[in-house]
Structure formats: C-alpha cells, structure tokens
Automatic annotation (TrEMBL):
Residues 10-180 form the Peptidase S26 domain. It comes from the Bacteria. PANTHER family: CHLOROPLAST PROCESSING PEPTIDASE, SIGNAL PEPTIDASE I. This is Signal peptidase I. It comes from Amphibacillus indicireducens. It is found in: Cell membrane; Membrane.
Length: 189
C-alpha cells in the first residue's frame, strides 16, 4: 500500500512540475496578462480591464500603426499605448488632425468618441516631432515609435519627457483580448 501512495504522490508532483513549466513557458514566450491602470486608453480600454497581450508576432514582424502595445516605460512600470508614428516618419497634429509625412491620416478608433464632444472641444492638442517630442528629431529614428494614449488629454505618452519615443526593444507585446470584466470581453482592435 505504501508503494502505491508514493507512486501516486510522484505522479501528482510530476504533473505539478509540468504544469508550472508550461505556465512559465507560455508567459515567457507567448502571452502575458496585464491590467489597464488608469484612463489613458479610454474609450478603447478602461481602467481595470484585464488583457491578454501576445509576445510572438513582433519576433517575426515590426509593429504597425495603430497597434496597441505594452512596453517598458520605466524600470518599474509597463505602459499600454497606441502606435501612431513609425520609424522614418514625420508626425504632426494640427487642428485636431493627424498628419504623417504631411498626409492626413484618419483615426477611426476615435471617430465616434470625438463626434460626441462639443464642436469647439480640442481632443489632441497641436504638436510636432521637431518641436514638442523629446530629442527634437526631424523624423522618427530607426527602431523607435511614437505612441499616444487614446485619451489624449489624460495620457503620459510620447509627448511626455518621461516616455518620449519608444524603442522597439522596449515593446513587450501587442494587446489582443480583454478577458475581464465579463461584460467587456472582446478582441482589442
């Protein structure tokens, strides 16, 4: 009887070790859970939303405009923001409109929200890369991205000296899925 109990304990111990190893493997190389902390990504993401971010796609391709990414903002803190400017581009907001290399670019993820505001409300204050972003670059340097929160008036993002342009090396992953709260379960666009 004692041998059978030991065998059963060893089976449980092996299963537990394998499960812990799989969790470590998945969290290290595939996905990470992350909580939205603050209102900087509203109306897209809300304070207290829990997300799954995948870490794989950026190993094979570069981030794209409008991807929502998680990145190391400081040694202690990761931020969630939307990529607006790509390497080699000139970015400017003028009269509440986004211009990339002097071409107007629509931001469809904000259209409904901005339409609900009063007509004289400015959503994104004018700024440009050469005068208002730390480093005062003519274009976004290779390997860097300009990121903004969707809640432009309440976001610490590339316009802040704390964040500035974000290095591709600091990008952890791309937000893909809200899994909590239950009523907000959906894919992240």
């Amino acid at each position: 009887m004692k041998e059978k109990e030991q065998s059963e304990w060893l089976s449980w111990l092996k299963a537990l070790i394998i499960a812990l190893f799989l969790v470590w493997l998945i969290r290290t190389f595939l996905v990470i859970p992350i909580e939205v902390d603050g209102p900087s990504m509203e109306p897209t993401l809300h304070n207290g939303d829990y997300l799954i971010a995948e870490k794989v796609s950026y190993r094979f391709s570069s981030p794209k405009r409008f991807d929502i990414v998680i990145f190391h903002a400081t040694a202690d803190k990761d931020y969630i923001k939307r990529i607006i400017g790509l390497p080699g581009e000139v970015v400017e907001y003028k009269d509440d409109k986004l211009y990339i290399n002097d071409q107007f670019i629509e931001e469809p993820y904000l259209s409904d929200h901005i339409a609900q505001l009063q007509s004289d409300t400015i959503y994104t204050v004018d700024f440009n890369l050469t005068e208002d972003i730390i480093g005062r670059h003519q274009t976004i340097p290779e390997g860097y991205y300009l990121v903004l929160g969707d809640n432009r008036s309440n976001s610490t993002d590339s316009r802040s000296d704390l964040v500035g342009l974000v290095s591709e090396d600091d990008i952890i992953g791309q937000a893909r899925f809200i899994y909590w709260p239950f009523k907000r379960i959906r894919l992240v666009n």
